[in-house]
Amino acid sequence: MRVAVIGAGVIGLSSALCIHDRYHSKVTPLSIDVYTDRFTPLTTSDGAAGLWQPYLHDNGNMQETKWNKETFDYLLSLINSPDSIQMGIFTQSGYSLFTEPMPEPSWKDIVLGFRHLTPQEMKICGWFNTTLMIEGKSYLPWLMDRSVCTVSSPSFLPSCTKHGVDVILNCTGVRAGELQPDPLLTPGQGQILRVDAPWLKHFITTHNPKSGKYCSAYIIPGSRSVTVGGIFQAGNWSEANNSEDHRQIWEEGCRLAPSLKNARIMDDWTGLRPVRSSVRLDSETLQLGNKQCEVIHNYGHGGCGLTMHWGCALEAANLFGKILKKKRLTTHSRL
Amino acid sequence: QDKVAVVGAGVIGLSTAVCIAESIPSCAVTVLAEHFTPDTTSDVAAGILLPHPFPETPLHKQRCWFKDTFDHLLSICNSTDAAEAGVFLLSGWQVFQETPSTKDPYWSTVVLGFHMMTDAELQRFPKYKFGQSFTTIKCECSKYLLWLEKRLKNAGGQLHTEKITGFEQLTSSYDIIVNCSGLGSRDLADDQSLYPVRGQILRVHAPWLKHFIRDGNGHTYIFPGIHSVTLGGTRQKHNWEMSVDEADSSGIFERCCELEPSLKKSQVCSKLVGLRPTRNSLRLEREFFVHGNRQVPIIHNYGHGGGGISIHWGTALEATQLVKESINWRNPTSKL
């Protein structure tokens, strides 16, 4: 069975790994090849700070809440394992600040030690909790090492008809529309600054319901630098850094943490969050020429790709299993 | 002008000198010490604000000193000076293998967000039954002492490298002496009740660690700093040995790795020893030193043990108050 995964961000690589781990002994041979024009450290997943934190409101999307939880629990189970540092996983505590009281989030019992801020701590409303960090720059190379797959440019992607690719995993993120138009998918452009400020040991995220998601300043310390951000421009495809956004990020960041003022700015980076009203995680059969090809779509994770990747990978593996059953290819199905 | 000599340039000496220089403009302050940063006991300390118990000092005083220090440092944390001063917030956990008798210590209302660890939080520490989670402050003396020196100079103070072996060396040139000589007071103030508690630490490179973890018994702790993580420790009473002991190093490393397995991947950058200047109660009081025809007030401020950084500003304020009173005594306003 030949599987082609398109996209080598956290979604593509983790889905590939999950499917490989679950099925390589049940389906032989199982070859999984990843096709991409960008891989670590140049993917969207690499630029993200890597803070595990879903949006404040789940909009009743119980499935996404489930995927968030599965990801957190999975990463937490690995925190004391010998691989944790190589994977880029560690704990960090911090603050979510609001201008007015907010209803408690769906993830309050998923994270550790969730509590409201005491009057001593902040003069505004907010929460404190311990969560996990998952840094793409470490995690993606780790995933690539573990997957038994090759990574190559999509121009080598064989068509289903010619070379017999049986299943395509579409993990193309923000550019999924190039493969199949999707009016619900749009870029959520965001610039960040990476700053040398190793005395900062807490994340601080702010939320302004009037300006929307990610439009409000945030500071997220990592293992190598501190990410300062707060830009979200829907529909903007530009990946160029701009000085106006830089100035806004820096001013708001320094207001949030005055100690930043004397920190050294290392660089800027701009990424495109693959924003969609809900994650597209489903399968369909496509007629390509005279052959049928199964496609599993797994894209549209917005600013929550790292936060929900493992739950989605598990679901992609479930969908893969259903395809195998349909084709009666698992050894279990032999009478 | 009243000439004040402050003996000692660790966190106690420098903070007391700054406090005096900034709040009593009529004083000309000079710090005299054999050792300055980075060679003081304060430089070895991790600098986490967590009080050290003084068995014979009333609890309300200990709480007051701690709170004064915490509040003072908290305002620095939130200012543009924080990075230069080496002061920042740090959250983490204090874990106990046996449930402690005091679940709500007196300092629990001074630190931020103090609460009992949840079962989910304790799961990462399988050998521990009980824990406290809170946010406190780390005050790194390698930066803080330099910042205090700068503040002192800005307030017109001076610093001299000079070992003081007897107060009589100072009585002719100074009107008031403030003794912040830590363990040196054993000889300088002839105080045999003062003794060292030897502490060895390792500094490792582990930039992914963002929380402190301390075993409630005080023997094992992990304190992330700006550029390295301090692993400790030892509490060897009456041990004056300043050189690194390799058996202590391996013991510390093993115990810390048990608490935090990811440390196995860390690299050791340095190993250091400090002698905590320990006493059953802090000596913070005035005495009069007579030399020839001079009667010079000496304000003692020493014996902070393992809690120097935790209470330094509180004791500096109190010592400053004693200096003020000594000035009034020396120069009483004449009543007609």
UniProtKB/TrEMBL annotation, chain A:
Its cellular-component GO annotations read:
cytosol; extracellular region; peroxisomal matrix; presynaptic active zone
Name the cofactor(s): FAD
Specify the enzyme's EC class, one word.
oxidoreductase
Q: Which family does the entry's similarity section mention? A: Belongs to the DAMOX/DASOX family.
Residues crossing the lipid bilayer are: none
Record keywords: Cell projection, Cytoplasm, FAD, Flavoprotein, Oxidoreductase, Peroxisome, Phosphoprotein, S-nitrosylation, Secreted, Synapse
Please indicate if the UniProt record lists Cytoplasm as a keyword. yes
- Where can this protein be found? Cytoplasm, Cytosol; Peroxisome matrix; Presynaptic active zone; Secreted
- GO term, biological process aspect, one: D-alanine catabolic process
Query: Care to name a GO molecular-function term for this sequence?
Result: FAD binding
Q: Name it.
A: D-amino-acid oxidase
User: Which InterPro entries did the record assign?
Assistant: D-amino_acid_oxidase_CS (IPR006181), DAO (IPR023209), FAD-dep_OxRdtase (IPR006076)
This enzyme's EC code(s): 1.4.3.3
Residues holding D-dopa: 53, 207, 218, 273, 303
Automatic annotation (TrEMBL), chain B:
Source taxon at top rank: Eukaryota
MF term (GO), any = D-aspartate oxidase activity
Q: Which cofactor does it need?
A: FAD
- Entry annotated with the keyword Hydrolase: no
Q: Which GO terms describe its cellular component?
A: cytosol; peroxisomal matrix
Q: Which GO terms describe its biological process?
A: D-amino acid catabolic process; L-aspartate catabolic process
Per the record, the major location class is cytoplasm
Family membership, please give it: Belongs to the DAMOX/DASOX family.
Task: Output this protein's name.
Answer: D-aspartate oxidase
- Which species does this protein come from? Erpetoichthys calabaricus
Gene from which this protein is expressed? DDO
